[in-house]
Structure formats: structure tokens, C-alpha cells
């Protein structure tokens, strides 16, 4: 079976930005005003108690990041490769607790501070309730990761973003579930006076019928729903045990869906 993204979309676009500096306010609004979505990875230990600080006001997270997702980046932005197991668990779990208390929702995504991780660290993240985590590596082929705890982006926004965007828009139809994933830090736009990079990209990508604009967490949840589908041995029936509607390519490539809990004849 071949799949679509929700509502029969053929492609997906997402963003991931780190550290929670005050420049996130402008970036979040640029994305939101163009109908785009991203995930912002925050260090709860550095969030401010008021406006006009170097970091965003922790009491305004829901307002600042409306329409986006907030994820873990460690309480103090520690390099997990230099930490003991206890320090890693505290750095991640305490960040989750603080962010969840501020937002009132589960926070189960993450980005590795300094890009530091290994197999052992990934195993600890599972115990901390983290479902996915972004690296600083790149996967230039627009692929969904096999292991979401080792999630490489397509590119950093300074790495030929417009060129990558053009390639993404012109992918061949046989490419299944292509995903473009852009990452960086909002302070890079401010420090280099390069807001035009993300503004021009947002304008190019907005309003396209074939693209699903999603947070990192929404993409994770959708792909997990696909991977959980249960087929009969002859492949003639499928059950969707998840709470997420799954879309697939039916006869003549027409989008069809399998509703949550549905057992469907193919």
C-alpha cells in the first residue's frame, strides 16, 4: 500500500528552531502568517520571567508559539555526551515537567543540544518519555526517518534553503511521502540581518494544495499511525488501531482513508 499525508496531501513541510531566544517571536509570526508550522525546542532554565529579556517570557509561551509546537532542549542546554545517566535524565525530565506545567499539555518531542547523542542516550530518552528528537545531521533526500530519535533535517536554513525548496516542489510523483525539514536558531536571522531568507522561503511555500504544513509532533504521530496498521495475511483487509485517520492511494491514485478503529476491505 502507498500512502498520502492527511487529506490526501502528497508532501509535508516542517520546521525546528532551538533555544527560545526573543527572536523566536518574530520567527513564529512569520511562519504562522504564511500558514506554516514548526517546533520550538526550549530550555526551561533560561526562560525569562518578564518581557524585554534575551529569552522569551515563560508566562507567554502559549501566545508566542500559538499554532506551533514546543519541545524539550534540556533545562540548561547541557551537552548530553558529557553527562552522567542521572544528569541526562534530570536534564530531560525536568525540562519536560517545567514546560508541561507552563503549557498544560504533554511535551514529548526534543532536539539534542549541540547535536550530541548516541545509542545509549537515545535509550535513556525513551525512559524519559521522549518520542522523537532532532539531530544536527542532514538527510537531503526528503525522507521520513526510520528512527525518530535520530531525526535528521533536510537542511539548516543557511544551507541552500531556496534551492532545496525548489527541489522539494519539483520532486517526481513516484517519491512517496517526501518531507522537507528545516532547522536553525532565530538569533541567526537577527545577528546576520537575514530575515529575508525565511521570509522569502515562507512566501514560496505558502498556500500549496499538495503540502501538509505540520509540526514535528504531528508528523511523528501520523507516521506511527501508518506503521501500526494491521493487515490480514492475504493483504485484503486492514485495521487502523490508532486514533489518527490514515490516508492512502486507492484506485487510480485517488486518496482514500482508513478511520481510527476501522477495519477496511481493500
Share of residues in strands = 15-25%
User: What is the helix fraction of residues, given as a range?
Assistant: 25-40%
- Unreliable spans are none
Query: What would CATH call the architecture of the largest domain?
Result: Alpha-Beta Barrel
CATH superfamily of the largest domain: Glycoside hydrolase/deacetylase
Return Rg in Å.
Answer: 19 Å
**Total number of distinct structural domains:** 2
> What name does CATH use for the topology of the largest domain?
TIM Barrel
- CATH classification class of the largest domain: Alpha Beta
Question: Secondary-structure map with pairings?
Answer:
Elements (H helix, E strand, L loop, with lengths): L2 E2 L6 E8 L5 H10 L4 E5 L18 H4 L4 E4 L12 H19 L5 E3 L7 H9 L4 E7 L12 E3 L1 E2 L4 H9 L9 E6 L1 H6 L3 H11 L5 E3 L2 H12 L2 E2 L5 E3 L6 E4 L5 E4 L4 E3 L1
Parallel strand pairs: 2-3, 2-9, 2-10, 3-4, 5-6, 6-7, 8-9
Antiparallel strand pairs: 1-13, 11-12, 12-15, 13-14
Helix pairs in contact: 3-4
Describe the structure.
- The chain has helices at 24-33, 61-64, 85-103, 119-127, 161-169, 186-191, 195-205, 216-227, and strands at residues 3-4, 11-18, 38-42, 69-72, 109-111, 132-138, 151-153, 155-156, 179-184, 211-213, 230-231, 237-239, 246-249, 255-258, 263-265.
- 30% of the residues lie in helices and 22% in strands.
- The chain has eight helices and 15 strands.
- The strands form four sheets. Strands 2, 3, 4, 8, 9 and 10 form a six-stranded parallel beta sheet that branches.
- With 266 residues, the protein is α/β, with parallel strands linked by helices.
- β13 (246-249) and β14 form a beta hairpin.
- It folds into two domains: 12-216, TIM Barrel (Alpha-Beta Barrel), CATH 3.20.20; 228-265, no CATH class.
- The mean pLDDT is 97.
Amino acid at each position: 500500500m502507498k500512502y498520502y499525508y492527511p487529506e490526501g496531501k502528497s508532501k509535508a513541510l516542517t520546521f525546528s528552531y532551538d533555544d527560545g531566544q526573543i527572536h523566536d517571536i518574530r520567527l513564529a509570526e512569520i511562519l504562522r502568517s504564511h500558514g506554516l508550522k514548526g517546533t520550538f525546542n526550549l530550555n526551561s532554565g533560561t526562560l525569562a520571567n518578564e518581557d524585554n529579556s534575551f529569552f522569551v517570557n515563560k508566562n507567554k509561551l502559549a501566545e508566542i508559539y500559538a499554532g506551533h509546537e514546543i519541545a524539550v532542549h534540556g533545562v540548561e542546554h547541557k551537552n548530553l555526551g558529557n553527562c552522567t545517566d542521572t544528569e541526562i535524565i534530570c536534564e530531560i525530565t525536568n525540562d519536560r515537567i517545567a514546560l508541561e506545567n507552563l503549557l498544560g499539555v504533554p511535551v514529548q518531542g526534543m532536539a539534542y543540544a549541540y547535536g550530541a547523542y548516541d545509542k545509549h542516550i537515545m535509550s535513556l530518552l525513551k525512559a524519559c518519555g521522549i518520542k522523537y528528537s532532532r539531530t544536527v545531521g542532514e538527510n537531503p533526500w526528503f525522507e521520513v526517518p526510520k528512527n525518530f530519535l535520530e531525526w535528521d533535517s533536510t537542511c539548516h536554513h543557511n544551507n541552500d534553503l531556496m534551492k532545496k525548496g525548489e527541489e522539494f516542489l519539483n520532486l517526481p510523483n513516484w517519491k512517496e511521502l517526501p518531507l522537507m525539514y528545516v532547522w536553525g536558531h532565530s538569533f541567526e536571522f537577527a545577528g546576520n540581518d537575514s530575515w529575508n531568507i525565511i521570509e522569502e522561503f515562507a512566501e514560496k511555500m505558502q498556500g500549496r494544495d499538495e503540502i501538509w504544513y505540520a509540526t514535528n509532533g504531528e508528523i511523528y504521530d501520523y507516521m506511527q499511525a501508518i506503521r501500526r496498521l494491521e493487515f490480514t495475511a492475504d493483504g485484503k483487509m486492514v485495521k487502523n488501531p490508532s486514533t489518527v485517520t490514515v490516508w492512502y492511494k486507492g484506485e487510480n491514485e485517488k486518496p482514500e482513508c482508513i478511520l481510527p478503529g476501522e477495519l477496511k476491505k481493500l
